[in-house]
Design a protein that fits this description.
By secondary structure, the protein is α/β, with parallel strands linked by helices. The chain has helices at about 15-25, 45-50, 65-70, 75-80, 100-105, 125-135, 150-155, 190-195, 215-220, 230-245, 250-260, and strands at about 1-10, 30-35, 55-60, 70-75, 85-90, 90-95, 115-120, 140-145, 160, 170-175, 200-205, 225. Bound molecules: NADPH dihydro-nicotinamide-adenine-dinucleotide phosphate.
Length: about 260
Amino acid sequence: MKLFAIFGDPVAHSRSPLMHNYVFSKLGFEGCYTRIHLQDGTKLKETFFALGLSGANVTVPHKEAAFLACDEVRGFAKEIGVVNTLINEEGRLIGYNTDADGFMFAIQEFSALKKVLILGAGGTAKALFRRFLQEGIEVEVLNRSEGNLAYFKEFHTPCHTWESFTLSSYDLVVNTTSAGLKDEHLPAPKEMIENILANTRYGADAIYGKVTPFLALACEKNIPAKDGADMLLGQGVLANDYFTHHSFDQARIQEVMAQSFLL
Ligand code: NDP
């Protein structure tokens, strides 16, 4: 029996154990997936190996710590410095990122995206940002504080704090902040979010499992918007594919994992 886990703080809300355990049981893979509340990200690697894990996911706020903890980082995660999936490969910690592709899977129904505003500048924002650039989509970033914007500025992307923000028009605005996750905060002052929503065709929130104040406001303004559930599904399918060493068809994993959302 192989053991897997999700590390995060908070982590109690995570649906990943349900999703992965459901797939393991339905596809006959001998695996068990649990959740670990980890406050100190520097303890990630030693905790992973002390528990004898075969693989793990990493959620807020440890994805950048996970990147630093890895012996080797592969693929897109290497470009962005953000890891959300860990694999134990013969005692070496290998890191991947499945969030960005999970998000692209989630927004397939949003057509002709030319310009996106990302709210937030953390790990998820970086992943989506680099993926949007790969797709040739123009991006602006709005964050409550200056510090995390440094990464985006290196790409000569228009970056704003709440104080320096100037409104434009967007095809999509994505909330990647954790505002609304454990609280009822909007990702920026209300008037600013109202103006942004009045100038976008679509909205999306990375948070899932609740109607965040951001989603509620988008809904009130009749903006087609979706929560992070499909992103969760998309990243989960790709992570499960790594956990099960590509033993199953990805479409089959997706089909079964989607059923776990109905439980
Ligand atoms: P990080 O901790 O890396 O970044 C958090 C960001 O949110 C920072 O930019 C921070 O701003 C901003 N922020 C935090 N609190 C507030 C607030 N009250 N008001 C405005 N801005 C705020 O987090 P992650 O990028 O890892 O995750 C972000 C969110 O995305 C989480 O809610 C997570 O659950 C969700 N997520 C969902 C996924 C899914 O599959 N659906 C996958 C990945 C993430 P500052 O720089 O000023 O600190």
